[in-house]
Design goal:
VC0802-like, elongated, alpha/beta, about 30% helix, 2 domains, Rossmann fold
């Protein structure tokens, strides 16, 4: 039986509780949300499963050592003394990614350099040879986190950020991060039971993540490689068993998932990405202007979209948002309408009072995820019907 150990899943601000729920759903133990991260416990197979299945995780780290370091010499000595030969040999390639907070260490690249010096000097002194640094294709990716004087050394089991799903080969201007899209879907409360629409779908990220969520398709099933595949304890048979067990859970959601955009180039790119994700049977894409479409069914609809913020728009941004609000009111009765934007002034022009405002970051842009429930008739009539 595999031995359990602590892991850390990194995520975006505001997604910690969602990620914790995902971890609980797939069977993690001792789940503890933190700041842009969630710690948990599992075995090697669960590490594989977390990388494969989690939709709102950016990386899965395996902490292997903690210590206090008062200065750069102590950091050097820490890496010099650590038993790296358990993870590397002289022919290996590695890289150290550092995150530093506090006053003792203020430059992450400097911390990485001192740690690297300690590691390679250990090998050089013992074997007269040393592993080499490779920023692009390392055999081992080491994560160094320093908070004031508290240092944590972890192995990065993911490699490239887990938002690199593997399906998106073409994008438009300012594409939405895949992990962000997956988090928006879950924050909006959609359960994959009602029809879904993104009327400004761009290269298709939101509808693809929605289809994968509703169909129980593992988030990173299309990914080419994970960093743990180069670890000394890599178990290909175990990974294959976990992958097969997750693929058996895939289902047809039995709902309509649609994306539309007025730009032909956007629909062309979205079509390619949908095909890459093997989701053509689950997603319908159409070239349509949002302001010229109506809700096609009388049943409930879940609408989630990422309209231009201003950075990628020619014209009057306020007029655009005013038009979005008018379209919601006139063309989308019985709709749970959500949109994300960093343009706070333009959001005021929507002309509807949001039921919820959720603070998030789209890259470095502080944004709001806004919820506009559009009722059939007036809100008062809706409540009477419901009662």
């Amino acid at each position: 039986m595999e031995e359990n150990f602590k892991m850390v899943a990194k995520t975006f601000f505001g997604f910690e509780e969602i990620l914790a729920k995902e971890l609980l759903h797939i069977g993690a133990q001792q789940i503890k949300p933190g700041n842009r991260m969630v710690s948990f416990v599992g075995d090697l197979g669960f590490l594989y499963k977390a990388n494969l299945c989690l939709r709102t995780a950016l990386k899965i780290l395996k902490p292997i050592h903690t210590a206090r370091v008062q200065d750069e010499d102590a950091l050097y000595q820490l890496f010099y003394d650590f038993p790296w030969e358990d993870f590397l040999d002289v022919d290996s390639k590695f890289v150290i990614d550092s995150v530093v907070h506090g006053t003792l260490f203020t430059h992450s690249k400097f911390a990485s350099q001192k740690a690297k010096d300690g590691l390679v000097d250990q090998f050089r002194d013992r074997y007269s040879e040393r592993p080499s640094v490779d920023l692009n294709r390392p055999d081992l990716r080491i994560n160094l986190h320093i908070q004031e004087d508290f240092c944590t050394i972890s192995l990065d089991s993911s490699g490239a950020s887990l938002h690199h799903r593997g399906y998106r080969t073409t994008t438009n201007i300012a594409p939405l991060n895949e992990v962000l899209a997956a988090g928006l879907i879950q924050l909006s409360g959609w359960k994959g039971k009602t029809d879904f629409l993104d009327p400004m779908c761009g290269s298709g990220t939101i509808v693809i993540e929605a289809a994968m969520f509703a169909s129980n398709i593992p988030a990173n099933i299309n990914r080419k490689q994970f960093a743990f595949e180069k670890w000394t304890d890599w178990d290909a048979d175990l990974f294959e068993k976990i992958q097969e067990s997750q693929l058996k859970r895939i289902k047809n959601p039995g709902i309509q998932i649609k994306g539309s955009d007025k730009a032909p180039s956007a629909i062309e790119k979205a079509t390619i990405n949908v095909e890459n994700a093997n989701l053509s049977e689950f997603i319908t894409l159409e070239k349509k202007d949002f302001f010229q479409i109506d809700k096609e069914t009388s049943g409930p609809l879940h609408l989630l979209t990422n309209p231009p913020y201003g950075e990628r728009l020619d014209g009057d941004i306020n007029a655009l948002y005013r038009g979005i609000g008018d379209a919601f009111k006139q063309s989308f009765p019985n709709t749970q309408a959500w949109l994300i934007s960093s343009n706070m002034e333009a959001l005021k022009c929507v002309g509807l009072r949001p039921s919820r405002k959720i603070k998030l970051f789209n890259g470095k842009l502080e944004s709001r995820l806004m919820f506009y429930p559009i009722y059939e008739g007036t809100k008062r009539v809706h409540k009477i019907k419901k009662d």
